[in-house]
Amino acid sequence: MRNKKIEGLLKFVLMILVVLVLTRSTFANISLISPENNSWLNSTEIEFKYDVSNYNTTCELFVNGSLSNTSNNVSGTNTIILNLGEEGEYGWNVTCNNPQKTSLLYYFFIDTTKPAISASPLSNIITTLDNVEVNFSFNVSDNMAEELVCSLKINDDDKWKGIVENNTLNNISVNLSKGDYSSYIKCEDTASNIKECEENTFEIINPEDEFSMILNKNQYSLGEDIKLTLNALDGSILNGSVFKGTFPWGDMIYEFLLTENETYPLILQLPYTNQIGDYFIELNNHYENFSKTLRKNYTVTNSMLIQIEGDDDFTVGKSTVLAANAEKGIPPYEYEWDCPSGLTCTNLGDSSLKNITSTNIGEYEITITATDSEGNEKTESFEIEVLPYRYLTVIVKEKYTNNSIKDAKVEVGNLSKKTDSHGKAVFKLEDDEYDVYVLKSGYGTYIDSVDLDENITLNVKISVQDIEVPEITLITKNNTVFSDEEFSLKYQIEDGSPVDCSLYVADEGSDWFSLIATEKNVIDSKERSFVLNKPVGYYKWKIECTDTNKNSAVSDEMFFSVMDIGGENIETDSKITELENLLDRIEQEFDFDEKEIVEDLGIKEQIEDSLRDIRTAEGNINNIKFRRDLNITQKQEQIQELEEKINKAGLNLIVDVNIKEKKSYVKYIRDDALQEFLREYFDAKGVDYSSGLFRAIKSQQTMITVSTKIRQVNLIYEDKIKPVTVVIKEISYGNNSIMDGGESDYKLVERIPKNVSISTENMVFINKANIIKEDPLIEFDLSEKIVYYFESEKPLGRMEGLDTVIVPADPEKMESMITGNFFSDIEFEMPSIKFILITVLLVLVLFYVSASLGWLEKLKGLFIKIFGKKQIEQVKELINEAFNYLEKDDIEKAAMIYREIKLLYPDLGVLVRDKVYDEISGLRNELDLKYLKSRFDKILFFMDKNEQNNVVAEKIKIEKTFENLDPDFKSKIEYEINEIKTQIDEFEKRNNS
After folding, report:
1. What value, to the nearest 5°, has the Cα angle with vertex 483 and ends 481 and 488?
2. Residues 6 or more apart from 303 whose CB is under 8 A from it?
3. Contact between 130 and 205 (Cβ < 8 Å)
4. Which of 297, 446, 546, 691 is buried deepest, with most CB atoms within 10 A?
């Protein structure tokens, strides 16, 4: 019986094979790509794109049921651009023959009309409140959209954003403080048509803040100008009064009125500072319904001064003239003198002048009172002294022996006397200042002056006249070479009197000598020296000496040089400490992303290299100092080279990094983009490109994962900040290796879109790079990480346009390996007849065996082993990576990986999908849980800010996300959901009431 079943089965199989051979049919599949179902577009020129799995078939495009295009020999992706001409709702589908098959019907909407916005304008707001609720009213209408997204911008800041219904009046209240404002409404419909209404400018004014009265000071002198600065809103009416007295009592002495035509600020000149006293000003402001009074006090003080000119002393029997001069009052002035007993005061025709005489020695006080034209008075006292005659005694001696000199001539003023045997001459004089001259033949002359306000004895010393100059001998030899930090220049002096000597030094090629040091009162002929410290160089020097009698001498010029072989001036310790501290700060203070940038850009390695260079150079300098085979000049030259190396070490190092923005993603290149990419690459390389090579390279892309990290970074140097955009490519191979021979068999090729960069001119490559095209198209040796950066900030959104492909280093070798691919590697290619026959035969035989022997579960495992093992590993690896990001609360990266998994899922086999469905579902639920918790914080923030529209929008997001959760996951967050709902209900009740 079993043999008959097998025989019947074989006949059936043979019949199927014959039919397949005769028909050579293929199974067409049509996928609509764009426009997507229920999409909104704002252009009438539409790009229709669909994908056909069959080869060389004829397809027809229908729009709203009408045939719009016929394409022959279609294979893979087909693109048609049509201009539909007008707005409206459209449906489209595609029918292909051989055999005939029709796609799904997709709908889309064309809306090219911008919304219309009408907003009520605002005028200036007058208020005395610190905060005002301002109402903005607007209506937006659109020809197609039922709802629009609108925002209110005030001074370019979003003050409100929400969803509004078409053709509905909307009112928005915003609390604003005093200031100038510019506002407008911006709306966007479903098709991304954007409209902004006209800008409305207005001002919120507090009249009280603008009203002020400022005196330039609170106290004035007689006759001084008073400046009053007034501030008020233009259009105010001000009236003011000036009172003499203290508030509230006083006599009004002046008033003024300012009409609404005045412009502020305004400066007024006030009168009435001619009399001393207290004053106050009252100022009233009337602006619309606002009134306020301000008050300011000020004082006019007696600022009068009396200056007395004349001698305040004179000798008895003599006289002096005193002149009084008053100022800082209101002229003219009258003077009254009060002379005490013992003095005689005589008028000289003017009350300001008096002649004073006395016959009595003593001190007297004269009182003078000045009265100005306004009756303001000032009194001053003046001390005067009547003096007796004074005695000046001059004693003349020899300077060095101290012997008295007889017959020396002494002249004091107009008087002249000779000294006696004791060297003395005495003069009787009035109080005054006198010049004193002492002369003696063969001696030097003495000249001095004395202020004779008491009896004075003047001791004068003169010496025998010296006309011999000092004799200078330079002991340090000419052209001496110094190598120490400090050294001495030695000399010797010969002179009969004390000498002052100075050292002058100049650069060898210069005539400009600088004074370095001076030694005073050198009185012996011993060896002397000047100690100095000079930098490396060539110099000349000289000594200049002057004796007591002003006899001077200058030595010959000699030369010396300084050769520094110590290297002590290079502060290597501070440089080493600075670099070590920088390494410690990177390790202890930088976060994970900052450390990654420092490592990937080689910054840390540069710092470590600088440290090694400094330490090596420092050791070499110490070695050179003790070498006997080098002279001073050779040592100096070699040390100078090492010092320059130390000085350059650590320059232009990056001392900090600041990551401004970051983005990470995993991108798989589409088949059509891959075709275009490879064609461009191999054309540039001069390699023949074939469909077989395409299939081989395409299969290899599935065996790796290229994760891309984009970082906008400020590289901070000591003297500048350089913004860059860093690209990090991390290549992982999973559990399989795409390389039998190693990484050298493959290259990573990167294509940069033109909207990111038009050339490689501003790109810096950390890995070794081969620029295939300046377009740019770049080739790297394959490794686990590829790093490069742009020397400017690039928008992160554009950076997702980077395409990365792994290609063989030897294309011919790769093409020869095609037949060794797995079945899963070529499951998207058009199957050959031979492959179909073998597959059908294998399926039928295995089905029969499994049905007969009960091995259906084993057969299922066999299919997974043959077709799905690589796919399961790939998906599970992505799932694990997503869960790792969720543990770090990085929802954005986890969600990005989940989207990649969703893109892969439709192309997985049925059995593979069964294996990973539960894990994908679990990942989706965990993502939803994390998302919900982040929304909780957001909605609490909006409730706190009383932003009702945002609260409603967040409430809808939370409800929809919670509904999609599986029951087991709903229970994990049910309590928090109920708490949030309660708070939302209370918030809505408060706002509705």
Report:
1. 70
2. 221, 222, 224, 328, 329
3. no
4. 446
What are residue 561's DSSP bridge partners? 481, 538
User: What's the per-residue H, E or C state across 214-269?
Assistant: EECCCEEECCCCEEEEEECCCCCEEEEEEEECCCCCCEEEEEEEECCCCCCCEEEE
By DSSP bridging, strand 147-154 and strand 226-231 are unpaired
Q: Tokens representing 602?
A: 């080689």
DSSP code string of 479-526? TEEE-SSSEEEEEEEE-SS-EEEEEEEEETT----EEEEEEEEE-S-S
CA atoms within 13 A on the CB side of 487: 16
- What's the length of the chain? 993
The residues, ordered by sequence, that sit 6+ positions from 350 with a Cβ below 8 Å of its Cβ are none
**In terms of DSSP bridges, do strands 290-301 and 219-221 run parallel, antiparallel, or are they unpaired?**
parallel
Structure tokens at 707: 């994760």
Residue 724 CA to residue 293 CA, distance in Å, equals 60
CA distances from 481 to 484, 561, 562, 625, 777 (A): 10, 5, 6, 17, 63
**Cα distance between residue 91 and residue 107, in whole Å:** 4
Amino acid 587 reads E
- Residue pair 626/605 in contact (Cβ under 8 Å)? The answer is no
The residue among 728, 673, 737 whose CA lies nearest residue 704 is 737
Tokens at 973, concatenated: 């967050």
CB atoms within 10 A of CB 675: 17
**DSSP H or E segment with residue 780:** strand 777-781
Distance CA 730, CA 758 (A): 24
User: CB under 8 Å to 832, separation ≥6 — which residues?
Assistant: none
Question: What residues are paired with 732 via a beta bridge?
Answer: 705
Distance CA 226, CA 169 (A): 58
d(CA 252, CA 280): 9
Residue 965 and residue 977 in contact, taking contact as beta carbons nearer than 8 Å: no
Q: Are 233 and 287 in contact (CB under 8 A)?
A: yes
**Whether 745 contacts 735, CB under 8 Å:** no
CA 942 to chain centre: 31
Q: What does the block give as tokens for 352?
A: 């300001």
Query: Within 13 Å and on the Cβ side, how many CA atoms surround 157?
Result: 5
CA distances from 674 to 595, 699, 760 (A): 34, 12, 22
Amino acid letter at 713? V
Q: How far is residue 947 from each of residues 175, 503, 944, measured CA to CA in Å?
A: 12, 84, 8
CB-based contact 897:875 (threshold 8 Å): no
Burial class (CB in 10 A: 0-12, 13-18, 19+), 853: exposed
Phi, psi of 133 (to 5 degrees): -85, 115
On whether the CB atoms of residues 57 and 29 are closer than 8 A, the answer is no
Furthest-apart CA atoms within the chain: distance in Å? 173
Dig out the tokens for 40 from the structure.
Answer: 């909104």
Dist. CA 801–CA 754, nearest whole Å: 10
User: Residue 472's closest CA among 533, 531, 551, 560?
Assistant: 551
Q: How far apart are the first and last CA of the chain?
A: 86
Q: Is the N-terminal amide bond of 265 cis, ω within 30° of 0?
A: yes
Under 8 Å between Cβ of 772 and 681: yes
Whole-model pTM: value is 0.34
Determine contact, residues 153/159, Cβ cutoff 8 Å. yes
Rounded distance between C-alpha atoms, residue 217 and residue 221, angstroms: 11
Quick one: CA dihedral 549, 550, 551, 556, positive or negative? positive
Report residue 760 as tokens: 């490689």
